[in-house]
Amino acid sequence: MFLIINHYKKNINYFIVASLFIILFDLLIINSPLFIENDQLLTIGISLDFVVVLPLLLYFFFFRKQNITIISALPFALVGYLGLVLIIPATGQETLEVIKYILIPLEIMLVLYQLRKIFQAVLTSRRSRLTNAHPIETLRESLGTSFKHSTFASLIAHELSVFYYAVLSWRKKPYLRTGFTSFSYHTESNWLITILLLSKILLIEGAVAHILLMQWSHIAAWVLTFGNVYIIITMIADYRATRLNPILLSENEMRVQYGLQMIAYVDSHNVESVSLISNKTLTKEQLKTSFTPIATEPNVHIQLKNSVTVIRMFGKRQIVDNIYLFLDKPREFQLECHSFMDKHTQE
Known about the structure:
Blueprint: H1 2-30, H2 33-37, H3 39-61, H4 74-87, H5 90-127, H6 135-146, H7 150-168, E1 181-183, H8 191-214, H9 218-244, E2 247-249, E3 253-258, E4 262-267, E5 271-276, H10 284-288, E6 290-291, E7 300-312, E8 317-325, H11 330-346
Parallel strand pairs: 6-8
Antiparallel strand pairs: 1-2, 2-3, 3-4, 4-7, 5-7, 7-8
């Protein structure tokens, strides 16, 4: 694991150095008398650096190592084009029009292609939904099949799950499975009160900030407002997910989904201990390998024998060996876990 992280950091350094060298060299050319004399030819050359060379470097140092297709670097070509619009003098802007008419249709085709794959994944998830299958999990599996890059698939699944829980879940019943005991964690939690308070702050102070930012930039004001609305919708979706996804426990498996904040499947044989806690403070090092709920004081600690990979918000994956939860009935959960652990010990 250390070697992989170290190699990843080296790739970051290589990419930054190579990119800065290319950008600084192009800026020197733009600000030199040579550009004035050969503006069209040099504009084409600099455009190739920003639209082709830099995205290819990104693919070579990052995407290629993760088996991601080269087409995934295309959106960064658009970012390069936007950079060209800012740095190329007025004499070379006319030449950029040709690049725009080539690049934008390609970007539109890429977006339509990705939307088509997402739509196909949604249809596949609906057709293949089995008894007791979770709709979001089925969707995540379908997206994982359509998109080889699991991080992107997890991110799309997260955004679709936000929409599902915030808009489509109001008549749904809690997700239960035959042979599993369920444990809720939303009734006694203060998460709903926290969401209401934060939503109030975001709405009132966000409106004031919007008015103030409008004096400087309309775009910045609306970006802030849409960001606040997105945060509120995400918090509502997270609370709905806490109501509809209790912790499920069986003799062989534990399904731990804590709203949108985390989901993991834990083999019951992999549980080292389950203890009741209060006022537990974790160090920065412990937080790196632990899950703990947002803005809620945990009352249960699950110690694992071996680390497992959990899916966090926005599709982020984390390797953890400690899971901290807040449960409405922590004592009952502990007793149920111990009964299964005792059976495994006897076996």
